Amino acid sequence: MKLFVSYLLLLSVLQACTNNSSSVVTKDTIPYERVKDWPQLSEGYVLSQPTGIGIDTSGNIFVFHRTGRTWTDPFPDSLISMNTVLMLDKETGKILNSWGANYFIMPHGLTVDKDNNVWVTDVGLHQIFKFTHEGKLLLKLGIAKTPGNDSLHFNLPTDVAVAPNGSFYVSDGYGNSRVVKFSADGYYLFEWGKKGNKQSEFQTPHGIDLDNKGNVYVADRENNRIQIFDSTSKYLKEWDDSTFKRVFSVAIEKSTQQLYAIDYMTLTPVIVKGSDILKFNDSLQLVNRFGRTGELNHSSDWYHDLAVDKDGNIYVGDITNKQLHKYKRINTPQ
What pTM was computed for the model? Predict the structure, then answer.
């Protein structure tokens, strides 16, 4: 009976995707497995909600976590006194370094740029931070604890994407529903977006990344879609699908330029379906989905962010169970 129900669910998904020209699930079926015993954190170490994930040029995994805190309304007023940024070995998940104490109230997004600088957003402080690989502060934007909607303020900013020339984009965020572009030195250049569901509008732009052409991919969370723009903010296209809900994050794998994303679905506040990991081809067609869907079936997981390494392995942060997961790509016979 269970297999029959699973078959019907899969059939309905395939039919829904077939009816959407931008989403076609193919025979590229779940060539991934969750790596057991990853990460291998120090004995007694307690991981909090892992909200941001990035990868440096050596393949080390950077994680931004809330270190004893969860999202509350209102946010706490004090800074977190313990380290919030972890650098993990990609093979073992052992902690190689940690820093970030006494900087943050409510950690959110994390990005590592091509020069191994680490960018993070804090929704409690309404600020953006740029650090060196070892945790020295280089740049800070936004006015602490002061939300706003102009060139100097953010309102619950969620994520950062950095271009090769050092200019960067901020998805801003829960309060403003806009994307803001800055120069490499942190000077305001321009912005676009407002709250809504039309082209170039957002309802919680929650994650952001760039491809090698400079195009900007935005996880438009509450609109259940991914919007794509060029580097000047011109709308190009979008992906949406009624079988997915609340797209939380997007990631471009640097060598193949393939797009990955994660979503999160609930039927009611107490009936949780969990997250799927989504993989797309060059035509923005969905070719792979797994997580709550398929044999891996982890319906309680709530993935908040993801990163993909040069070997196609996927790293996600589960904020419900306060865990990190690595999905290893399986070399399937041709």
Answer: 0.90
